[in-house]
Amino acid sequence: MTHRTDHHDAPATPAAPDALAPFSVTHHTLRALASTEPSAEGTRLVTDVRRSKRLVLLLAVLDAAPGGPGGESGEHWALLEEAERHDPEAVRDVLHYPATGAWAEETLRRLHAPYGPAPDLGHLGALAVAAALRAGIGFKATLRPVHGRLVLPTLGLLRPARPGPFALDERSWDTDAGTDATAAGADALPLHVLPGGRTALDDLDPYRAPAAGHPAPVRPARRLTPKGHKRWDTQWSGALTLLERYDTARAEEIGRLLRSVVPLAGGSRSSGATLPAAAGSLLARAQAPPALAATLVHEVQHGKLAALADILTLHTADRTPRFWAPWRSDPRPLEGLLHGAYAHLALAGYWQRAALYGARGAWAQHARIRAQVAAALPAIRACPELTSAGREFTDAMAAAEKAMDELPPPGDQYATARRALDRERRAWCAAHPELSAFVQA
């Protein structure tokens, strides 16, 4: 038996959404994802969902744009199609770049809003030009820079010497020149690529972080200096070294599912955040390698669960904040509690493996985080709003948490963590007496 939902997966060429095949989520894949442990089938499902959702979103933008497929946006799409015929992988990377999703969602929202800012349809032209440049085809296009900047997703940005429309062709960016990329009549700033060669440190794309007014309390850093890039390179390399040493499978999963990292501005309270619209990206502040490694593990789980929720209904609860989340002081809705428990379950597993390799302080981290997950899961599993798929998913989460008993921390560290958490629970219930019924003892 499988859980089925709509599956959209096709090349960049427009296709009728109703002609696309259905997704199948087997019980095995659902339980594998619930455990948070990396698996080939789980990674494949997440990747396929992201690509399918992105294509449908882009097609919706094209259909809603003034003039439809026959207007200027249609011309840009035609350039994408031509580039795809020459190099499908290059075009796929541009279209599925995380910031492209944030742009598409924001543009579709503006296209259907009677008031507010005009949609940025010119960005579709920038996507087409970037794809054409990466595919190595001959072309001519004219784009209008915004505030003197013309961003080419996955490549970088151009700063034309003169205001007004800017003409581009296949010679406008040397895709083989790396940091020496130049363009006639414009300064070129290439996108910084972190060590390892696949994940970008994106401090350029205007859609790399939530739009103004987004509820997430995150603010992206401005363009970093070379010193800032070097600092990130060092911390990234250190974090990957730790991940590969302690948890090779998670290191590989992060490499497959994470396409870009957006540096947060100084003073950000959060160490990391994930924007569902920008699937495959995370926002993070500069931090020491051990903390960055934990942030990567944590945030990638949010992306996995968001992809699963796009195709499978796990619960029908509303957004009312009423649950105690041991890792936060404010009440959380069921969705937030589920996401938090899922990400922390992965962290507990990561710190357990790190502890087995002798990482300093790892057993204490594992004991504390596992105790938090163990305290949250009963409240989640008791929710009548869970669907059958949601119940199966959370049961598998609980089984993964229970399996950690096979390799417990030395001494009474876990019992001590549980006792400390009991005190926190009682204090929280005293502060929120009206919500104590939603806290499982």
Short overview:
The chain is built from 13 helices and twelve strands. It is of the alpha+beta class.
Key words describing this protein structure:
alpha+beta; 13 helices; five-stranded mixed sheet; 441 residues
Task: Describe this structure as you would to a colleague.
The chain is α+β, with helices and mostly antiparallel strands and 441 residues long. It is 49% helix and 10% strand. The strands form 4 sheets. It has a 5-stranded mixed sheet, covered by helices on one side. Strands 4-5-7 form a 3-stranded antiparallel sheet. The chain has a two-stranded antiparallel ribbon with strand order 1-2. The chain is globular. The chain starts with a strand and ends in a 10-residue tail after the last helix.
Helix-strand topology string: EEHHHHHHEEEEEEEHHEEEHHHHH
- Estimate the strand proportion: 5-15%
Structural class: alpha+beta
* Number of helices, counting only DSSP H or I runs of 4 residues or more: 13
Question: What quaternary form is this?
Answer: single chain
How would a crystallographer describe the biggest sheet? 5 strands, mixed
Helicity range:
40-55%
Q: Could you tell me the number of beta strands? A: 12
Distance from N terminus to C terminus (CA atoms, Å) equals 35 Å
Mean pLDDT: 89
Unreliable stretches (pLDDT < 50, length at least 5) are: 1-21
Shape: globular
How large is the radius of gyration? 23 Å
Q: Going across the major beta sheet, what is the strand order? A: 8-9-10-12-11
